[in-house]
Amino acid sequence: MQWNTTRFTIDLSRPQVMGIVNVTPDSFSDGGQHASTRSALQHCEQLLRDGADILDIGGESTRPGATPLPLTQELARVVPVVREAVRLGVPISIDSYKPGVMQAVLDLGVDIINDIWALRWREPDALAGEPDGMQVVSEHARCGICLMHMHREPRTMQVEPMAGDIVPQVRQFLEHAAQMLQARGVQKERIVIDPGIGFGKTMAQNFALLARQRELLDSGYPLLAGWSRKSSLSGLRGAGESLKAHERMVPSVAAALLAVERGATVVRVHDVRETVQALHVLRALE
Prior knowledge:
Strand content: 5-15%
Number of helices: 9
Strand order of the largest sheet: 8-7-6-5-4-3-10-9
Largest sheet: 8 strands, parallel
Oligomer: single chain
CATH class: Alpha Beta
Structural class: alpha/beta
CATH architecture: Alpha-Beta Barrel
CATH topology: TIM Barrel
Order of helices and strands: EEEHEHEHEHEHEHHEHEH
Number of domains: 1
CATH superfamily: Dihydropteroate synthase-like
């Protein structure tokens, strides 16, 4: 199995570690630590030394309750970083749902569009004929796409989480999004799916997605798992104890390992070195 992207054909026969680079002042886990271009690039280089296979750069926080960022501000944050990061010799992903950002970074050579909205988002003041995300990526010759499931939107997704058995709901949504892309001429080998851990789901629902992850894989697409530092991992120590975001490294690595064991081929993580070490143990066992 492989993931075709702008400049790289990524071999998914072994798990790929996607390192998170938040160029934001307000990310839930590391807001402000890499907000400048220089510090973000230094972080990129450190993640590569730690063993990252892919770098995922994002300029807007999508934590629960987050306020949308204007297009001009997101571009100002990510474009200078992307311009340098594409020279690092590894696949570069952009974590964005805005068509204007997608087009700008693809023009710079970005390899993957990682969209929490699965290409559904529309500019509220878009002019007639202005391309949406689906059009931007489908008109690109080769870029990879990660389609994520999100219930509602960041400001409201945890106010009223999903109801019922969510696994078939998530699978149906992702299959439909992928099929829409393929109907536009996008090769299946360019598409990866993400169940969207924490995006409008309860703790129990998130763990159901992990326990039954193979049901999602039956759709025939590679799966990206994004458990890193999510709040569902924070209450596992017992009543009255809650881990802060920066304290969730150990459960994050455990969740990534379990996701890979259940068939995920890409894990999106903050703690790259520790995740890579854990995956070495799993590989030795296999």
